Amino acid sequence: MTRASSGPIATRICGHALPREILQAKLICPESVFHYSQQGIRRSEVPAYGPPQPISVHFHVLTTGVAFKLVNVTRTVNETWFNKAGPGASTSIQTAMKTKLRVGGVKDLNIYTVGGHQGLLGYSTFPVDYEGNPTDDGVVVSYASLPGGSMEFFNLGRTITHEVGHWLGLYHPFEGMSCEGQGDQVEDTPPQSTPTNGCPETKDSCKGGGVDSIHNFMDYAYDSCMNNFTPGQVVRMKDQLATYRNITL
Fold first, then answer.
1. Which residue, 49, 75, 196, 249, has most beta carbons within 10 Å?
2. Contact 12, 2 (CB under 8 A)
3. Are 128 and 17 in contact (CB under 8 A)?
């Protein structure tokens, strides 16, 4: 799945298709580990921006009851990982990175920042993927998409929000690219057949079903345009956590 924009070219790949004002979780809070990769040891090559507390700052899980406890931040100098880690042809490099750095189990969110191979903003695994490939589990984002980063229109941290949404089991509101079918399998997101570029307030790709979810964190709008999850998405997050990650909220 790719993301195009009317601004600089930027792409999100969000796993594969399947047949926070922060509210603290009352029971178990998933733990998170933030892994920085960088290409050199000179101070000028180390991003000055980036979250010491990435989830509470960048994952605005508004009114969801989901929160994350940051337990560690790592910094790794590896030019190959920084410049080439990614899905597809770069999977072997990504696998080497995750095999070395990933910690924890099914309940633990690992976030990796890299250079953004081939212009990718980020990508994520889904909860259902964990059993088949535990080492691959986690979120990868371009460091340039973090708040204060260099990716124009996409540097407010919403890429982490979007990708962690996938890690929690959410799909795009335009899933299936059609006005028919199950879409994102959430009842309160209107039918949508195309991803959003920019922030077009009147965008309505499926006439009669309501305007597109351009402000939803799971669309592809500019970061400044995104501000919500729906109640239905919250229900799905919690169901997915309970089913695949053994976390009950």
1. 196
2. yes
3. no
What is the C-alpha separation between 185 and 189, in angstroms, rounded?
A: 9
pTM here?
0.84
Whole-Å CA distances, 231 to 143, 182, 228: 30, 17, 10
pLDDT in tens, 93-103: 999 999 999 99
Q: How many CB atoms lie within 10 A of CB 16?
A: 11
Length of the chain in terms of residues written? 249
Q: Which amino acid is at 213?
A: S
Which of the residues 79, 163, 180, 201 is marked catalytic? 163
Sheet containing 120-124: order of strands: 11-12, 120-124, 139-142, 108-114, 31-38, 69-77
Active-site residue, 45 included: no
Residues 29-39 have pLDDT tens digits of: 466 777 776 66
